[in-house]
């Protein structure tokens, strides 16, 4: 796993080449249609031709079954012979026009000494046609006249059904890669660029780094950049899966493909299109969809010997039926061989994994979950333990003011104003939480004088002529401020994971202001959900035991690893792995990189749309923890779907081929017709694709 | 029991087994270009032509795929040993670069593993 990660990094620069080849534009045919649509239409034309010709061919093949025809074309008559000759020519026409690709494919394969599905169909269809030809022209070489029957119906009906199956498959396959097309389609093709002080509509290719682009409500952001003026709310759900629009002000980053909702703003282009978040996401999803999962190795081995194996089985079947079967041996042997060739479906087997993987990873991408590879997906499904970093993962990652407790004659509002006034000059992160809260409440901090930060203790200063000390218990003791048992308030706050600070005004205790890194809104529900999915959740943090326990209690985590230095996080993950568990690490991807790499699955919580997190196997584009649940859900569902597909395809072949070979015949007299085999074959690969498409209905959201 | 049919059938089986599974030789040699890449051009049409590419170890390899048909089967090429893949739009040239390799052989296949090619790395 680790070795492969280094490979990823190693190959990162190679992406440029692939980008140059125009990856970000949808695959288009000449008339603006996708190649898939063209392929579908061409296959459907082939199907209609084959199906139409099949009708008279069937009638002439079994004139006895149809009153009227029975009299018109009696068995053994000259009229019937001529009718059959015409059918033979029509069937040849169908084979060439509708089934030509089977023969081209066979020939191309043979040149490379390989066989594929085309080889099976082409061999089966031509065997039936040639047999009929001989039966028509040289009936005398057959031991008995009833053997000299024609099988043109097999030729046309098999061609028709296989072509129809392929057409439906193409259609369904197109749907499985819909997710990526949707992402690609997000990219607007023009933008309003300011050139020489004027606003001009410019095609995407002509936009340069440093250009200023104007975006109005309802317009899409064309490319990644930084807001230089104006403000708005932007819907980034297409990239992050997060449905609430994000506020953007001067200096904030905006991303190509997102939708501007409320205001107008101007931004400066900071990235080339090929380096944009959207292009990165598209590329990552494509790579992941093309990756293989370990289970596929077995399938690969089977499919590399499958086709020649089936041809050999068909020949063996022919020999056995000819030598030991009932008379007429020629006929039975031929039916068995042709049916075996046609029922075998290597496609269903080969298709199961890639189809589900493409759909599953696409589904993830639609929900802001980037799964790096099929392997990550396979392991994610086996996870037992989720280790979560505390700061920034379970909590917001920055402190905010939680409580103000008045202890004397000052009101909450007064206390807030005084503490904000004294702290406004401080650069401490706790200070900014207080100043921000005051501004939020509409209070304007006043000027303080004689500000002084006392390291490890707090700050002092004069506000409105009042002497202020603001800091911890140590500061109060040193300054001789009587706390009169107020200390117990502070202790209970500390127990809740908060940092209490005392505010002393003119030598008297004024109140307690508490600041804490509060837990994210959805942390509790996500952890509850993970537990109900049978997963063990562990919190890891560098904070002290007391704070860690307090946060853990709030979100319902029982196992806490506290006071772990960043460099020891990976070690702790390894210890959990040594207990034989598959462990996922959830972190912000910057400080936690070694732990993310050590874990079986590293899940990086993105800040915004920064997807360049190399250490992770899964990246959650939005900061919401809900992505962890979604990622595991999509992994589980996709793997289940893959196993269903593989199982179905395997069982189909394992049962279908022996029946086609006639193993049931000695006991029940059942022998499959090649027509039934063709229908079964077309249906089996279609079923695999349709099953994979079911993944699209997967509900990933909860509560 | 018909000896003729039996013998012909068994012979045919032998020929098929040898043809598809027997040892394969040869392959087309990739040429080294000015920028140090060993380049191989591969046509994609119901398989890879050529399907056996011989390269030298220790030098990066550049493949240029051109898919000249529209069938859905080979719309993607995968290099399982390198966790690498590329979509091949019909009629477009697509370049895939691989890092220098050690001696041995590496497969590349279509997404379903039905069409296969081999990279043979020699000293």
UniProtKB/TrEMBL annotation, chain B:
Report any Pfam family annotated for this entry.
Cupredoxin_1
Ranges of residues in domain EfeO-type cupredoxin-like: 15-121
Cited InterPro entries: Cupredoxin, EfeO_Cupredoxin
Write down what this protein is called.
Cupredoxin domain-containing protein
Gene3D superfamilies attached to this UniProt entry: Cupredoxins - blue copper proteins
The lineage, from the top, is: Bacteria, Bacillati, Bacillota, Bacilli, Bacillales
Q: In which domain of life is the source organism classified?
A: Bacteria
